Batch of 3 targets.
Target 1
Amino acid sequence: MSTTRPLPTTPAQAPRRRRRWPWVVASLGVLGAAGYAAAALTLGSKTASDTTVGGVQVGGMTHAEALDALRTGLQDKAKAKVPVAFGEQQANLDPATAGLSVDYAASVDGLTGASFNPVALYDRLTGSVERDPVLAVDDGKLTAALTEIAETIAVEPKNARLVVKDGKAVVTDAVDGVAADVAKTADAVTTGWLKVGKINGALTAQEADVTTEEAESAKREVADKVLSGPVTISVDSKNFPLAADAIGKTLSFTETNGDLVPSYDENALVKAVRAAGTKAGVLKEAKDAVVSSANGSFHVEPSVDGLDVDADAVTAAVEKAAVSDDRVATVAAKAAPAKFTTKEAKDSLPTGVISTFTTHFPYAPDRTHNITLAAKRLNGAYVAPGETFSLNAWLGQRTPEKGYRGAPVIYNGRLTKDYGGGISQVSTTLFNAIFFSGAQIDQYTPHSFYISRYPEGREATISWPNVDNRFTNTTKGGILIQASVGPDSITVTFKGKKTWDIEATKGPRTNITKPQRIEDDKEDCVPQSPNDGFDVTVGRVFKQGGKVVKTDYLTTHYIPEDLVICTHPNAG
């Protein structure tokens, strides 16, 4: 019996099996990457859990939330003024004016958004992020704002000074100044704003142009030598001393391009030389001829010529001698002729009356006393041809020591009392004598309101020291002023050489203004009667040989004289 066994099979003939593990791994990798990407996207939508920008907590927020939180957290701080300290001085900088602002979008930029960096993802989960806000700075506005502040805190340096006082040269030390360094301060502001409570501004020292050492040098080399002793002035081989102190009083030092430069008051130095020379009998002052009148006749005191120095050469000669070893200044002599010679005085003698004028006044003892006192002083004044006469200068200040009494005067449109009240009557009478003489009117001031006892537009008040009555004698001869006072009038007469025939004209009143009524309860009240205010123009017609040569016009504006009623029982 036979058994049949199947033949053994070969490997090529065996069934095929698929390898599946790589696909599993790949599938698992795909699933892991998807999860990682999902985590990155999820974590990227918010900021790290502990994130601050400029001290404002924005952790765990979306981009929009972080932006809103940062705006809210910084808006007050970003608007607040910024203290900027410059040493002991402090200024407040306004951010808006200075062009300082926060770029909020840029400040939160990058805090959110997908990241596949494992470290970044870990930081998003557990990390801490701290950053400064991003600033937007307008450099031009910041510089302008700091420049304005710099001007307020700057301390100018003080130059050393060298002065001559009481015959000695005295040095005052220099003091350095300080100035703000705008560029460095701007850097400090942009670096420290919103980070520190106060910005420390930058200062730079400003050295004085003239240092103490330079002033000490000028003292040794110039001032001390000038003050070391007298200088001998030699004029026409005649000598006289000029004291060191007299020179020192004319010496000063001024800063020029950083140096102390000596200079002399030329007028004062020439005056000192003349005084010393006159005292020594080497120089002589010229004396003008003097005209006087008594008993209707004139007397001429002769002029005397003098001897002077060449004023233009004095300063250079003394300046050189004062620092030299021999200390001798040679100055040329110069004739000093009288300004008003004997011949001119005789030729100018008055030959008759050229003008006269009289004004009247009411009874008032104190006022009349003042008028009489001033008229006595005025009487006999002589004004040489070409000379200018000032009534204020001639009378001087009116004081009780000179015998003047208190009497009504006009002040700010109201009557009040002052010493010398009534002198305007003298001035007005003199003014009309000037007017009709044809002399040149240099200065006059009408009363503020019109006073009926005076000619309209032809009157002149006076007050010490500036309200004056001045004229220049432009007539052919000298003018002798005669003044006399009667019981109720004053007359001023000019004697001289007739040059013009003068006629006066007057236009109508214009711009008439009515007065007001004022009741005054003060004890020092002075009552007033009402008068209109107005404008008026007067003319001065100059004639020679019956022909008009020229005409001058004077226009006066008068304010109204208000009615003042004094209600105080002791007023008036």
Target 2
Amino acid sequence: MSTTKKNIIDRLGWLVLILALFFVVLIVRVGYIQSFQGEYYSKMSIRRTIKTDTIFANRGNIYATDGNLLATTMSKYTVRLDMVTIENKLFENKINALSDSLSVMFNRPSSYYRNYLRNAKRKKNRYLLLTRNIGYIDYARLKTFPILKLGPYKGGLITEQKNVRARPLGDLAVRTVGYSDYRGNVGIEGAYINYLKEHHGLRKQQKIAKGQWKPINDTNEREPKDGSDVVTTIDVNIQDVVHTALLEQLETFEADHGCAMVMETKTGEVKAIVNLGKYPNGDYFEKRNYAIYEAQEPGSTFKLASLLVGLEDKKVDTGNIIDTEKGRIKVYGRSIVDSHRGGYGKISLARAIEVSSNVGIAKMVMDAYKSNPQQFVDGIHKLGFGKKIGVPIKGEGQPFIPNPKYVKKGDPKSWNGLSLAWMAWGYGVKVTPLQLLTFYNAIANNGIMVKPRFIKELRNEGEVEKVFESEVLNDKIASKEVIDKLQHILKNVVVRGTAEKLYSPSFSMAGKTGTCQTEYWTGNTKYISSFVGFFPAENPKYSCIVVVNKPNKRMGYYGATVAAPVFKAIAQKIYTSSLKEKRASLETPILTSLEKEDQEYQQESINVKKSMPDVRSMAMMDAVSILENKGLRVSVRGDLEYVRKQSIPKGNKIKKGQQVVLY
């Protein structure tokens, strides 16, 4: 055998041996995988061909008491392009048309989009951003553009949808409506998120040809469930009245911030709550919920509580005469001074409240309780001061009432020789506007203290799930005799006292002015102006508080000048509106009982989710999202910015799948 043939045979032998060894290794590897890693690769295969898809549900809506939407869920879309998916020929034929369409929609030059798209195509960008957070109308329009209308597999269209919280009425009561997200739980939404929260569904899908997915089963693994709707006590009309009146006064007096609330006397339902703070540019927005969280010295509005305790303990009577001593007295070297120079002379305690005499009320409390200050403090606590009301909205301010039982040198909260006299006229104590309003509302409600309430009921698909009833905190804060006297005094404050400029012969009001110094310890004293009361004075329907913090001192700072006019504007507009409603009902040809009207109103409220809302003047994309959330098919005609007309009138019954046209 030649050397060449022998070398070939040797090489073939080695090749066979290598192949045999490789085959053995392969068999061992396959056996190992099947025995020890089979389950792992089986799961990996399933993960690549089967996925669990999320079926998104909607968070519940928040409604005003009249059915107006305060907060709802709307869809926002981010659109991107996979430039590799788009064929070169298609790209070249349609890039100019696409650029022109994008230019019209987003108000940028066509040349900008041509360069933007060409650069992305050259770099093979598979995730090019076109636009983010657009509404449904813009998204639907975008999908009709050249190339994009071919969808994801030919046009490279990538769509990311997310649900966001929207407020159709803008900033109206925005701090009270609140939110629940990465920032925390705030306002009504934060307080009732367990009811509002949606529960997303789950559906298994299998990968099929061309990278598409289809459901595996006819039923979902978990059905989506929308959150319950919350119906608040907020009345949009009253809220708007309060907002307008407060904003105008804050701007006029260049105040730092302010708040105003209107509460229904019998039920405690909060009909309006406005909190406006000043931004550096001079505009006012809902910054903080001052009415609920801001505990501060109330000043003269606290005097009524001091008088009530004295009357209830039978230490004094409203007819008792007290000497105001030319409007100035000293207590442990500190002066208590009346705003009226020279004082009011000798006046009754009732008159001391009417003219808001600091000296008169301080002397009354010191004379009556100097030997037993604890009795006075206990009486204040019985009125609910000193502890939180316990409203569900987070952030309620912690009130403070000094106590003779706590004495600690150097502690500003410690009881001292000034405490009793200073408490009498609203200094050295802290309460929030909501807590003070709750007390005055009890006076208006004949001594029955009801808890402020922000929620009427919960609904799911139009059906009432839970009703929130009024809650009585104290069924008798004082005797009827004492309450009657205080109501009479508060009426006289408006007729002939510090708020006499509010007096109107056409409708009656009652209340108390407050002017409190703040930041007096800095050498640059500022003021808090307030007014709290109720209307009508006889058989009150509403109580109201207005607090204006740090108005420009050069323009005015007394409660009667700054806060009281806001109260009057609110009361007058609400009173006028109620008269119009009464006149309208009298003109109705078919007369029905009040009870029947109330039942019809309640039924209408229950069916609000099944009724057509009024979306006129609303942004078109917001209107579409709201109506689609109700299950309607929406068609748009004409101008795409705002809704001018709707084919289904407000209040008409609607059903899922029904078509509505927006013009």
Target 3
Amino acid sequence: MERRDVANTVSGTTVGGHLVQAQHIGSVHLHQPEELPRPHQVRRPHGPFVNREPELAALTAALGRVETGELGVVVFTGLGGVGKTELIARFTEEHRARFPGGDLYADLQAYRHQGGVDLPELLAGFLRALGAESPAVEAERFTKFRTVTAGRRCLFFLDNVEHAAEVRALLPSGGLVVVASRRRLPALRMDGAEVRQLGPLSPEAGAELVRTWPGSEHGTEEELSALVELCGGLPLALSVVGSQLLDHENLPIGEVVAELHDREGRSAVLNDEDSDLGPTYDAVYDRLPEQGKALYHLIGVHPGPFLSAGLAQAAGIERAARVLSELRATHLVDEVEDDDPSEKRFRAHDVVRLHAYGRVRELPDRAELLARVVAYFRGRASRADRAMGPRLRLQDPSGDGLPGFPSGTAALEWLHAERANLRAVVEAAAEQGWHGEVWRLCESLWPLYHGRKLYQDWIATHRLGVESAHWDNQPDAVVRMRNQLARAHYERKEYPLAAEQLALAAEQLPLVARRQVAGVLHETDGLLCLADGRPGRAVERFALALEENRGDPHGEIVQSYNVAQALIADGRPDEALTVLAGAAAQAGATGDDDMLMKLPLVTARAHRALGQLFPAVAHAEDCVRRAKARSQYAKEAQAHTLLVSLAAELDDAELAERSRARLRELAG
């Protein structure tokens, strides 16, 4: 390898006098400590706060132990709306500077499906926030999380926990873990946790909170106490009522109390354990403007946890962004932080969602509103999928009139931010028997599931997709759904399950209209042949897939890529280079950027197998450049891993260190 000339140069930062913190000294590179991300995910407190001094003291005491190197765990249990989240937000705001590693938040309800929580995906989000790459193998994420959190003092807020095992699986190596749950979790005391039950505000504390509202001085002590009692002493209910009082300056507290008393005898739709606040939220709902009520209906109908202005507008709500802001001001929804900067998302408190569900249960156009929700997500998912580049798609384009995406990266971030909504919508559509919507949504979710390895969502939705494709009498779709399901099992190394799906899919082939659909089965079968050490058989299967894709440029390139990998594994790298050269020329002519990124890595492996190390380095570095430009960090890591091996064979310490340094960055 060609070497740079050595020059006596020094670069770095002057610390004091003639002392320099060096970065470069001649040709020697001294690595400075990387500045790690410091996430701030716990929301800011909303407003006045009273009567939680013992709980704040418990958190402060736990923080003191954390600062000596211990792991701290504090659990708060209590009714929905009792103020658990506000308490933790207040503590975090006051002590953020004492968490140099940042503060992270996870709502387990957003990851919960059919009683279980997708803990690997939750950890993947934590790892990304901490600047670390999430391993593709789910089991490795737990050990990676413990490694990354060792020596970093972070606060982890786990909201809506239901079982002690969920907390145990998410414990870091250090820092403070704060848990909020409606259920009592005494078993966590065995893990050293402090478990405290958060009760409703006392009449005195509730009245103190109400007195912070402008205009509350016009209410008598009896009226203030009655209002606190009617709101169950729950800060959330008091905040919602208080926000409406502020919006109606001439509305006396006594009038509100009288109205709530009048509603107490009516049938309530909200029952949260031993709390009955249906009348309170009925009164809040009745005072909402027309579009506010329409958004409240959407909260009750939407099967997923997150709202956006785009969804609200598609549901027929006028001035959707403004209405969302109004409901946020009244504490009916909160803004949610995620990795997608293109769109604000909001979430209603579970108590509000339950009440909203009761309000729309008998709504005449409930099914029509749900259909609009499903159509919105299917349309936007379709547009996101197509923004990711060319591939076989059975469905026609949809989503006309909905916003598109400026790039494939932006599309993938949107899909990932909406993953909980997308799974919930698939399940809701299946319950309604809207079978065409189900399998089409699943087809569009391929780039999300394949790119981000959301295996639990992937498998659950595609089981429904298979069933819906059968009901919709679409053999091509049945094969497509079973193949995508097989790929999930293949990536989890569940090879017998993958083979079972392929066998069931093959039964439909006599009914299939498109040759490429048969090609996808040959491709996955080829991958299974490679996995169990039959590269010659894999070459045959990929060659069949290539023939089925003739006439589709992207399909031809992908299958040529697969054939080349199998040829290298079968000891025929010279043949692989011939195949790769043709594929690269075709990818360049058609502008297939995704494959132009992937092909150089396989080309590098073929050159290495032939002992041609310098061309191998050149092609691997080409893959690095292209992968980095497309934010495809997993592919970039594969290329750097190959470069490290090539550097060892070339005795090139500079190349090895450069690639190792980048791998450390990618791994966090």
